[in-house]
Amino acid sequence: AWYEMVGLSWEETRQNVVEWLHTSGTWDRGGFEESSPEELVDKKRHVYEAGYGWKEKAQAAKRVIERHG
Question: Could you tell me the pTM of the whole model?
Answer without folding.
Answer: 0.64
